[in-house]
Amino acid sequence: xxxxxxxxxxxxxxxxxxxxxxxxxxxxxxxxxxxxxxxxxxxxxxxxxxxxxxxxxxxxxxxxxxxxxxxxxxxxxxxxxxxxxxxxxxxxxxxxxxxxxxxxxxxxxxxxxxxxxxxxxxxxxxxxxxxxxxxxxxxxxxxxxxxxxxxxxxxxxxxxxxxxxxxxxxxxxxxxxxxxx
Length: 181
Prior knowledge:
Layout: E1 8-11, E2 19-26, H1 31-40, E3 46-48, H2 56-71, H3 80-88, H4 94-101, E4 110-116, H5 123-127, E5 133-135, H6 140-143, H7 146-152, H8 162-175
Antiparallel strand pairs: 1-2, 2-4, 2-5, 3-4
Helix pairs in contact: 2-3, 2-8, 3-4
């Protein structure tokens, strides 16, 4: 599970000085334990339901919003990672957002993300806690549940076209602070 080529690291907005690292895992056997560790703060990361993620860029946009809120001390939630999950959602209901986008005890696929300074990537430590297969992020397309995704983001038929799907989702994430969907 140490294949670093399956982990991506991208820069967030330069004003934050932060980066995001992401990895997709399949056939996860210890989701219940992982959820408990994330909720207790023992694992410093976001563990997301990849069925609701169409592309890594969707997570990067939410992470940017979370990082800016974190640095401005204007977070709506209690941690940087719950803020990321909250920002993935178009709902203003924190609990609903965390339940919908966070992992559940029986999830077999998990997308993890850490936000860090360039010289502090901690994702490898987190990967060692997961009993599952590290796979390339392109496999998001295989685990994404389009019906659930479209329902969660309230996408209309025109937006479901693959050429505008990511744009529609990212637009909703970016404007969720001041638009109700």
